[in-house]
Amino acid sequence: MTRAFQKIYTRIDNITKATVTLRAAGVGNDELATVGGRLAQVVKISGEEVTLQVFAGTEGVATDDEVVFHGEPPTLRVGDDLAGRFFNAYGQPLEGGAAPEGEPRQIGGPTVNPFRRLQPSELIATGIAGIDLNNTIVTGQKIPFFADPDQPYNQVMATVALRAQADKIILGGMGLTNDDYLYFKNVFENAGALDRIVSFVNTTENPPVERLLVPDMALTAAEYFAVDKGQKVLVLLTDMTLYADALAIVSNRMDQIPSKDSMPGSLYSDLAKIYEKAVQLPNGGSITIIAVTTLSGGDITHAIPDNTGYITEGQLFLRNDSDTGKVIVDPFRSLSRLKQLVIGKKTREDHPQVMNAAVRLFADAANAKTKLENGFDLSDYDERALGFAREYSLELLSIDVNVAIDAMLDTAWRLLAKYFTPAETAIKQELVTKYWPRSGN
After folding, report:
1. Closest Cα partner for 143 from 235, 223, 214, 217?
2. Contact yes or no for 264/322 (Cβ under 8 A)
3. What is the pLDDT of residues 316-372, one digit of tens each?
């Protein structure tokens, strides 16, 4: 349905697989339009020549179809009633309820002025020991999960949503299967956590190009709660590889020359404009971003993880542990570059020493395993290291461990005392005196 004063055109000059081009006056960048009843968005303006990206594709569009410009870019009405609801890529309710009320905000706006940013200094606990113990996350940080497509990364994201110590959780789901969408919905509802979760979802049944709107919708909601309300907000984005694939689809259909791995040349800036929304604000509000990037055949050099690594402050690797059968947060390939801002300061004093000792001894176990695989005899120390590594994986690295940080540290001390002497751990004597279990087990 058109409104008064909308610009309407009935002559399209050029049609590609994803775009239409026509001559129009007074049109703005990113403005929404309908082309033959299909939603579209302005992606290029050259004089009076305007190119629109048609989200559902251009198959069946004719050169005399009606093009109606809406006069505004995509917006989201922000307010407290966003919480507890699921929306599509356009910010429309998925459950069929009333549209959200509140002030309309343009999505995809600029990041927070650097002058207003504070150095991140607050811990954001997830309850997952492989993260909180070894790769502690700080409010205002941006960090991806790197995972193979067959790993349960969406289950991990749902777990983080339920356990994270944050005021609001914003989920941005891109290319979710219906099973994954229903999984998120059921988990959140059954946990009684909907009052602090807002979800924007694009499923495999929706046009892939719609995925490009999801991160901006999620971050617009996040900025409302963080900037306007001063709340601690955690944004979960899954899967950024499917987001980048949608960028490539649009780039290809617009006949742009691809860059590395068939990705558009703008991939770095497209990813950066999302991740750089992470911020710690003077009013106490913050936006922390955890995103999933699935790997193709474990290839970390692919353009998507490669560019992501330059933008973000570390990475979290999921891998299957062959010794325990568990999916763990790999302590060797994972890294949180901001953890030193909080460990031992916002967490217990022994945290840095215990973390370093446990990872070093886990590495000794990996060396012992290599010796065993190559037919060498194992020493008593090697045998103890292997026993420690197995229990360390089961009780602290596995993604299904859900304990507080102090309990993680106590567990680590117990395992260290069970398999090693204080001297073998190389932990400072004053900490050993204070925390070493009296029984030795």
Report:
1. 235
2. no
3. 999 988 888 899 999 999 999 999 999 999 999 999 999 999 999 999 999 999 998
How many distinct structural domains can be found in the chain?
A: 3
For the entire predicted model, the pTM comes to: 0.90
In sequence order, the 6+-apart residues with CB closer than 8 A to the CB of 430 are none
Q: pLDDT (tens digit, 9 = 90+) per residue, 53-70? A: 888 888 899 999 999 998
- Domain range spanning residue 21? 7-69
**Which residue in the block uniquely carries the two structure tokens 């260290």?**
416
Are 30 and 88 in a shared domain? no
C-alpha pair distances (Å), 16 with each of 23, 60, 251, 306: 16, 11, 11, 30
User: Residues 116, 51: one domain?
Assistant: no
- Return d(Cα 318, Cα 292) in angstroms, integer: 10
Q: What is the DSSP letter of 289?
A: E
The reply to whether 133 and 20 lie within a common domain is: no
The alpha carbon of residue 412 and the mean position of all alpha carbons in its chain are separated, in whole angstroms, by 28
Give yes or no: residues 227 and 207 share one domain.
yes
Residue type for position 413: W
Q: Determine the Cα–Cα distance for residues 24 and 47; give it in Å rounded to an integer.
A: 9
120, 24: one domain: no
Biggest CA pair distance of the chain: 84
